């Protein structure tokens, strides 16, 4: 009997000009942006916050965190609610602005390849780029992003 291949359930998250791939276990929910509040302080990649269940979670533009322009928030825009990995944001977690609904994919070691030639800046919220099913999504450094948001919010509150 053939050994069962271990699969990782992930989401391909549509952004402007790129996609992210995140483990499904990190995602709490994908919601519409019915109740969100924009901030006016820097950095511009920390857009504001969004209401989710009984919580309010920080809303981040991954594109802007990578140095690109903040994308427009339109009718297809969604918030990808991520579970807290570090605990620094309390029980609320973090929300990433995405452009449409993420696609569920199952990946295995055989279909996932690390892109070796992609160098990342030390400050970048990107761990690496991978190739999976003819896509080359980015793997976000969610711990780094969460720590940055927590530090900003703590500084503003303090």
List the topology elements.
Layout: E1 8-14, E2 19-23, E3 27-32, E4 36-38, E5 46-52, E6 55-60, H1 62-65, E7 77-82, E8 94-99, E9 103-107, E10 112-114, E11 126-132, E12 138-140, H2 142-157
Parallel strand pairs: 6-8
Antiparallel strand pairs: 1-2, 1-9, 3-7, 4-5, 5-6, 7-8, 10-11, 11-12
Secondary-structure-based class equals: mainly beta
List the total number of helices. Answer: 2
Mass-distribution shape: globular
Distance between the termini: 60 Å
Unreliable residue runs: none
DSSP E strands, number: 12
Order of helices and strands: EEEEEEHEEEEEEH
Residue share in helices? 10-25%
Major sheet size, sense and barrel closure: 6 strands, mixed
Question: Which strands sit side by side, in order, in the main sheet?
Answer: 3-7-8-6-5-4
Q: Radius of gyration, rounded?
A: 16 Å
């Amino acid at each position: 009997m053939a050994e069962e291949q271990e699969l990782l359930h992930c989401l391909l998250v549509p952004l402007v000009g790129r996609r992210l791939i995140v483990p499904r276990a990190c995602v709490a929910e994908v919601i519409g942006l019915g109740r969100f509040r924009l901030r006016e302080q820097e950095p511009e990649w920390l857009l504001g916050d969004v209401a989710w269940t009984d919580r309010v979670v920080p809303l981040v533009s991954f594109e802007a965190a990578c140095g690109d322009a903040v994308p427009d928030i339109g009718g297809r825009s969604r918030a990808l609610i991520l579970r807290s990995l570090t605990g620094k944001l309390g029980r609320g977690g973090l929300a990433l602005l995405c452009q449409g609904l993420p696609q569920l994919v199952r990946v295995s070691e055989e279909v996932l390849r690390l892109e070796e030639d992609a160098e990342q800046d030390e400050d970048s919220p990107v761990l690496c780029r991978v190739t999976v099913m003819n896509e080359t999504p980015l793997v976000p450094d969610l711990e780094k992003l969460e720590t940055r948001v927590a530090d900003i919010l703590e500084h503003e509150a303090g």
